[in-house]
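Researcher: Please predict.
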Amino acid sequence: MSDKNELVVIDIKPEQAPTLYVENGLDKFLNKIRESANEVPDLTTKKGRDRIASLAAQVSRSKTAIEKPGREYLKRLKNAVKPAEQEIKRFVDACNELRDEVRKPLTDWEAEQERIVREEKARIAAQELAKQIETDHEIALLMNEKFDRDLAEKKAAEERLRIAREEEIKQQAAEKARLDAEQKARSEIEAASRREEEAKAATARAEREKLEALEHAEREKQAAIEAERRKAAAAEQARLAKIQRQKDEEMRRRADIDHRKRINNESLQELIKAGITKECAMNCIKAIAAGKTSHLKIIY
């Protein structure tokens, strides 16, 4: 089997990386690899099977030869922005710490005020409950006295019935007062719990907004890094193109000089063969080449 499709050794220099590791920058290598691996060896022979294994190994080596310098180039780009990332994080952490330190007295004060308000509301509720119970008790006592006067003349059976009924009324009034006070206390606790949940929700929203702002800043930073990378790659490509143009121009200039020297020497030899002395022939060639003759020219 012919080795005409053997892959050439790929050697990517560090200075080539900015112009190669860009969008579609590696297509020419990929096309060469595909072209070199474009064979259909005979699987029925050992030589054919060995050839397939060899082609696959060549593709792997070519891949490594291009991937390794690319990874190194990417590592250099990441290392270039790492100090900026670290400095930004240090600055943000320091500002967050300073912010919390500056606000701590206010935060502590707000927490203390909330505690005082809660305790004051609980105290007022307890006082109101005690007053209500005392009022209900006094009313019940007054009613007992009136009933005692009215029922003094009635029979003992009616007196027992009245007392039992009045006791039931007193118990119902006390129970109602107790239930009302408990309901009021529960309402206050539920309101405080709702306020606490609302505060937690506000804190969560603030944290989410902070995270979104950080993610937005990170996206902008990555976009700026990519723009700088593309700018650097374009500048490097322009620089290399300029160097190549200068090299091409120098090669053309040297080729033209060599060409003119060859034509001049051939013309000199022809004049000498024609019987003109070498010195005279040289002077003639110099005059013609310098354009000092009106009708004689050397065709290069």
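Model: The helical segments are 17-20, 27-36, 46-151, 156-273, 278-289.
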